[in-house]
Write a structure and sequence with these properties.
The chain has about 230 residues and is α/β, with parallel strands linked by helices. Helix content is about 30%, strand content about 25%. A six-stranded mixed β-sheet has the order 2-1-3-6-12-13. It has a four-stranded antiparallel β-sheet with strand order 8-9-7-10. Strands 4-5-11 form a three-stranded antiparallel β-sheet, covered by helices on one side. α1 packs across α2 and α2 runs parallel beside α3. Its EC number is 5.3.1.6. One of its GO terms (cellular component) is cytosol.
């Protein structure tokens, strides 16, 4: 998966600190992306040392990595609750509202985050913003794409179909859908935009995570800064 933003060392610190918050017997949501991957690898080492956990992957890639490093996995439908979800973000603000979906995994990520008692974002300082400004990814039913593009324009956004980097054609999600990256400029009210996007027919899920994260572990050059909502 493409690595963005801060240094690998910053991401490693954030991911490993979040893995330390996992307790024996926990069911853990395993996020997607380069930062969450550090948490999954750290959990694998903890399992080697005797930690008893079950991981709930949010994507093909996180499932694959968990299996490689020895974290036992189960699917979301097989469990009743999640103690802690650990996941990355593409941008987040002081209220821990976040834009996710740089890896096109935000639909499952949101289901896991909503099912979790706690969501910890693992990020580097480049993800922090006073106002969310990045494009918001929408997972969209393929047939609904033109209609969704029109609705996004009515909401003041400009959509771009996400294209695959190493083959001709669009990115197809783990669920068989397309991704539209939608630029709304600075997002003054993430909650209002989230509600509007959730009501667009054909949008399977949008990448705005509002009111879901409990903490952000920000890996820095010196350590880890733990941020909570203002
Ligand atoms: O769909 C992917 C996810 O939302 C990722 O958690 C997000 O893109 C952050 O990834 P990374 O830690 O690689 O920047």
């Amino acid at each position: 998966m493409k690595t963005t933003g801060g240094s690998d060392e910053q991401k490693r610190r954030a991911g490993e600190r979040a893995a330390e918050a996992v307790e024996d017997g926990d069911v853990v949501g395993l996020g997607t992306g380069s930062t969450a991957a550090y948490a999954i690898r750290a959990l694998g080492r903890a399992v080697d040392d005797g930690l008893d956990v079950v991981g709930i992957p949010t994507s093909f890639d996180s499932r694959q990595l968990a299996r490689e490093v020895g974290v036992p996995v189960r699917s979301l439908e097989a469990i009743e609750g999640i103690d802690l979800a650990i996941d990355g973000a593409d941008q987040f603000d002081s209220q821990l509202a976040a834009i996710k979906g740089g890896g096109a995994a935000h639909a499952r990520e949101k289901v896991v985050a909503a099912a979790a008692d706690r969501l910890v974002l693992v990020v580097d300082p480049s993800k922090s913003a006073a106002t969310l400004t990045r494009s918001v990814p929408l997972e969209v039913l393929p047939d609904a794409r033109p209609a969704v593009e029109r609705d996004v324009a009515d909401l003041g956004g400009a959509s771009t179909l996400r294209r695959a980097e190493r083959k001709d054609g669009p990115v197809v999600t783990d669920n068989g859908n397309l991704v539209l990256d939608c630029d709304f400029g600075p997002i003054d009210d993430p909650g209002r935009l989230a509600s509007s996007l959730a009501s667009v027919p054909g949008v399977v899920e949008h990448g705005l995570f509002v009111g879901l994260a409990d903490a952000a572990y920000v890996g820095t050059d010196d350590g880890v800064e733990v941020r909570t909502r203002d």
